[in-house]
Amino acid sequence: MSIYAIADLHLSTALEKPMDIFGSHWKNHWETIKKDWLEKVTKDDIVVVAGDLSWAMNYTSARPDLDAICALPGKKILIKGNHDYWHGSLAKTRALLHNDTYFLQNDARRIGGYVFAGARGWKQHGDESFTPEDEKIYAREVGRLSLSLRAASRERGEIIGVAHFPPFTQSMRESEFTRLYARYGVKTVIYGHLHGPQIKKAEYDDVVIGGIRYVLTSCDYLGFSLARIRE
Asked: Of 10, 20, 120, 215, which has the fewest CB atoms closer than 10 Å, so is most exposed?
């Protein structure tokens, strides 16, 4: 069993949203990802998709994108990103998923010797744009992460953290999120959200804070291929 990860698929099966407006390297990005996925992943492997799954605004538009992810091999763990506006109800989202696909929220999921736990996260204190409204969302996300990690601690296995936003600050220092992961003995956290040429490999390829390895898996950062997290 191997663990793979990728984030920020930004699918738009039912919508006209060509991703190459963000650069020519995004052209047919889903076909590139899918080809790599099919070459690497077996039915016994695990794939974590760390948020921003679909551009859809409602379940009708999101369903083809979710079906496209579910159809692929492996046991899939999904989490919400900041652009997943279609996700309004955990029960409705989970009802749409099939073929060993699970949406993680306020709980944990054990597969073999691993337990997956996490929360979307949010901006960090100290960010220039941080507002009183952000404070409310930040506190809610910290609470969700705490619930998820508590659930994970009741299971047997290595806990793998899953986030969408970077759990650390812009200066790569600790936050309430990183301290929670540390409290529960997490050693690896998968995240996404960061894009573009300003995200330099030398800075983000080996981020370790408080003994925890943070793995950036935005699809453009990975060259539209899955990252192997565990053999």
From this structure: 20
How big is the chain by its Cα radius of gyration, in Å? 16
Token duo for residue 111: 């597969």
Q: Which residues of the chain have pLDDT under 70?
A: 21, 198
Token duo for residue 61 = 């538009």
Cβ proximity of 9 and 49 under 8 Å: yes
Q: Pick the closest to residue 186 from 154, 162, 218, 222 (CA basis).
A: 162
DSSP conformation letters of 1-59: --EEEEB---B-TTS---GGGG-GGGTTHHHHHHHHHHHH--TTSEEEE-S--B--SSH
Stated as kind and residue range, the H or E segment containing 115 is strand 114-119
Helices (H), 41-131: 59-70, 90-96
Measured distance CA(146)–CA(106) in Å, rounded: 8
Strands 3-6 and 227-230: antiparallel
Q: How far is residue 136's CA from residue 131's CA, in Å, rounded to a whole number?
A: 9
- What does DSSP assign to residue 218? B
pLDDT value, residue 154:
98
**C-alpha 36, offset from chain centre:** 18
Task: Record the tokens describing residue 14, joined without a space.
Answer: 């039912």
The pLDDT of residue 220:
94
| Amino acid identity at 198 | Q
The torsion angle over the Cα atoms of residues 148, 203, 130 and 124, rounded to 10 degrees, is 30
The pTM of this model reads 0.95
